[in-house]
Amino acid sequence: MAETYDADVVVIGSGAIGANAAYELARLGKSVIILEAGSHIPRWKILENFRNSPRKNNFNDPFPNARWAGTSMDHSYLENTGSFDYRPGMVKVVGGTTWHWVSACWRFLPNDMKMASVYGRGRDWPISYDDLEPWYCRAEEALGVVGDNESDQSGAGGDKPFPPRSKPYPLQPEGTMYFTQRTRKRLEAAGFNFVHEPNARVTAPYDGRPQCCGNNNCMPVCPIGAMYSGIFHVDHAVNAGAKLLTESTAYKLEKGEGNKIVAVHYRKPDGSDHRITARYFIVAAHAFETPKLLLMSDVANSSDQVGRNLMDHTGMGMFYLADEPLWPGRGAQQQGGFANFRDGPHRMHHSAFRHQSSTWVPNYSVAENLISQGIFGKELDRRIRHDAARWVEVVTYLEELPNPANTVRPHTTRRDGLGLPTLTVNYNVSNYIHDAAPHVLSDYDKMVQTMGGTYIRRDNGLQNRDHVMGSVIMGENSKDSVVNSDCRTFDHHNLFLATTGVIPAAATVNPTLTGVSDVPPENVTI
């Protein structure tokens, strides 16, 4: 008698990566169930919450922080035991954390994927850039990425496009903002190589999304839906026949004969437990929650690497006032930056890094800085107008190396509102990053001097960058890796992990596009 299942595939998590996986399978005629721990929240409600929030600099604040699906900025969500307070800004809602991102859609460079071979540091990917390139094109089409087809994105300042592309970007880049025009012209004269940032804010109507009109509110939420978020592919998946179950927190993957995963157990806010079966399972939670589920279930961990090798673009930053009005706060919140140290022989000795100019409305930060100096009244008004026009924020992304001692684990004693373990994170920043810090600070000094600037703040300390990787690491060998090059777990042939947690070398760029590219359904038989 034929075995029956509730679905061909269960996808756990409805963020950008899980939603794309669910849609690709549903459009191929597979029966798909999507499990999402969070609620469905409409765009208008997020906007209303943002307008009513007094915490405008907390980009998680407009989103639900339910007792069964808390945001990572809630201090009860995780406990840090390492030397670095690692608290990235994840939310649990239908569509995932891409509700609040600036939609940076970089490709990794070929050398990013063979760090050990080229530079003798870290790990190689089990696949090459050429293997992934066609899937990058597919992902860019799915997300509606705009970009400069002629740019050398390595930061070396070459006159040929790089990395290689087999197709142009789906859409042309947005117009260059005045802020970008001026900073680019002045800093390029000092030797900094500007790179336009590919992004998923569409410059023409695309896949039901309107053209970006420059609201400068990408974080915490695009008010009109021009910027991509996972919610679009959740809707596509449902329209293609997938079933979405919200407020359904997966807490156990059940093993059966032959080490096959036979079911997932999930819990609802009322405390009731449920079980669904499938032929295949895709865990597409973010890179904290994916290893947590695997460890709670005692699956996929024969290598003892689940929850290890945690990486981020642990970064640095500065603020300064330029000697001329630049007018940040108009257009996108990010348009590009300077990437001279994105790749090169220095990676044998210290981390690669990339500088990003942030161009969001600075009034909150400007006012906070002035008030801290005791400036009030008419002088405060005058200085806000003056400083906001000249305010420059630079954030820097540095690459961390995989280290098995950097871990994420289910907490042994703390429980959430469902009675399930919260998280404990042990993260220590390596000397590979620390050794790059003097070079970053030297760049800061040179930038400020070139712009005739005055420092507001230069951070010698390190900061979160919200780009979680490595925690369910990909590799060729089942003894030191969790998944293979198809993101299939070595231990269970019917369990796949669709998360940036599989990335084995962090590079310096946002990992979302690479995560969406990593699991082409044609590579596996489902």
UniProtKB/TrEMBL annotation:
Residues 403-514 form the Glucose-methanol-choline oxidoreductase C-terminal domain. Its cofactor is FAD. The keyword Cytoplasm does not apply. InterPro entries: FAD-dep_OxRdtase (IPR006076), FAD/NAD-bd_sf (IPR036188), GMC_OxRdtase_N (IPR000172), GMC_OxRtase_C (IPR007867), P2Ox-like (IPR051473). Residues 222-314 form the Glucose-methanol-choline oxidoreductase N-terminal domain. Residues 148-170 are annotated as: Disordered. Residues 161-170 have a biased composition (Pro residues). It holds the Pfam family GMC_oxred_C. Keywords: FAD, Flavoprotein, Oxidoreductase. GO terms for molecular function: flavin adenine dinucleotide binding; oxidoreductase activity, acting on CH-OH group of donors. Residues 8-40 form the FAD dependent oxidoreductase domain. Belongs to the GMC oxidoreductase family. This is Sorbitol dehydrogenase large subunit.
